[in-house]
Amino acid sequence: MLEYTLVGRPDERPQMSMLFSRRTFIRSNVLAGGILPVGLASLLGKTDLVSASTGPVSPRVKSCILIFYYGGPSHLDTWDMKPDAPAEIRGPFRPIATKVPGLVVGEHLPNCAKVMDKVSIIRSMHHGMKNHNSAAVEALCGRTPLRGDLELLSDDELSFPCYGALFEYLNSDQGRELSAVALPHVMRNVVRLPGQDAGLLGRSYSPFQIEADPSLPDFRVNAIDLPSEISADRFDGRQSLLEKLATGPASNGRDPMLAYYQRAFGLIRSPRLRSSLDLNRESASVRDRFGRHKLGQSLLLARRLVEAEVPFVTVYDGVHNGQDVNWDSHAKVFDRLQNHLLPPADESLAALLVDLDERGLLDSTLVIAMGEFGRTPKINQSAGRDHWPDCYSVLLAGGGIKKGYIHGESDHWGAYPERDPVTPGDLAATIFWAFGIDPQKEMHDKTGRPFSLAAGQPILSLFDRG
């Protein structure tokens, strides 16, 4: 278990404790299924969160691309610089100006600085999960894990479903080929990182998982490729035989697996899916713009999936646990950020926003970039920053999101929310609200037990009205 150092001065710590108690009260109320009265929500700082049960909402977006930086990026060195803080907090990076007057970002985000006029930043995101596994559930599901901050081993049937699984569930009766895709790998913290699967909905609602590096010359998605020895005629014969066996007398007229077989056959046969996964259809200049690395080509692939009308695409940056392979930089954080982590992230995110905008897709596509938490304000003895879920930043763009807008504020050392605190549950409600879906919609797990689609309230002040 990591040891945390309170970075506030002694005369400020009671205020920080009061903020933590307020967040704990909100979280426990939401988990209990309650909705705070409007007056009480206002007193607690939730002035821009409103009840989701206000009737139908017109959809603002058709698709969402969620970029997840596994390991926890440092908010203090990227989106929430503290240039006036002591050196042991502000670090060596300098703030740079952006296209939005008065808005600065870290100096190693030069490409993103040029597109901040397309972006909103939440600087007051927080939750209580200090471990990667439990925090990943907060980030990728918008829910606090049932076991709290215990180090979850992996996904299981009692886990909350990820966003992609919820979209598969919501669209299951609409005949879509795919409602959710995750790429370019499965994340692991020794075992499979929680938050990537359908959990209590059942595995049939899991997102379509791509496990291949799109930056490689021989990139292919083997799941939709026929083996070389299987001809089209032979494939047709197999499908016909399978359907006869699944509906014959031996199966009592209906094999419950038939729907899954038919979906698999449909994906393999889909020219639209096959085309969307073919990066060779892109020009060399576009591929260069995104960056010829795994993250850049993954974001380009995400844009192609959005063009193919896939509602929810998740892109993971970072595969395995360990600070040398993801954003979890407990040591030498500044070297890692400057020379390894930020250059591809900066290049690819800016390219995605520009590319979507040029193609007329940004207005209908919500883009979210985040990790599972931020990093400690105080730099540790290994020149690193440790886990810090108490306050961090999330970037949003497109889909009617305000441009050049800052929502919420951290305190003067980036340790706790100073104004308008936001939870992952609120972000979840915001995503569904943007799609025109009531965040309080009742879902059912595979045993029929009900639960709400999201635990928080949509952040309406993020959006341009009208």
Can you put this structure into words, describing what you see?
This protein is an alpha/beta fold. It folds into two domains: 10-220 and 279-462, 3-Layer(aba) Sandwich (Alkaline Phosphatase, subunit A), CATH 3.40.720; 222-276, no CATH class. Helices cover 31% and strands 14% of the residues. It is built from 13 helices and 18 strands. It has an eight-stranded mixed beta sheet, sandwiched between helices. Strands 2-3 form a two-stranded antiparallel sheet. The chain has a two-stranded antiparallel ribbon with strand order 6-7. α11 (294-307) runs parallel beside α12. The longest helix has 26 residues, at 333-358. The chain is globular and about 70 Å long. The N and C termini lie far apart (48 Å). The model is unreliable at 1-54 (pLDDT under 50).
Write the layout of secondary structure elements.
Layout: H1 13-31, H2 38-43, E1 63-69, H3 87-90, E2 95-97, E3 104-106, H4 110-113, E4 119-125, H5 132-141, H6 163-170, E5 180-183, E6 188-189, E7 191-192, E8 208-209, H7 232-247, H8 258-269, H9 271-276, H10 284-290, H11 294-307, E9 312-317, H12 333-358, E10 365-370, E11 374-375, E12 387-388, E13 392-397, E14 405-407, E15 409-410, E16 417-419, H13 424-434, E17 442-444, E18 450-452
Parallel strand pairs: 1-9, 1-10, 4-14, 5-8, 5-9
Antiparallel strand pairs: 2-3, 4-13, 6-7, 10-13, 11-12, 15-16, 17-18
Helix pairs in contact: 7-8, 11-12
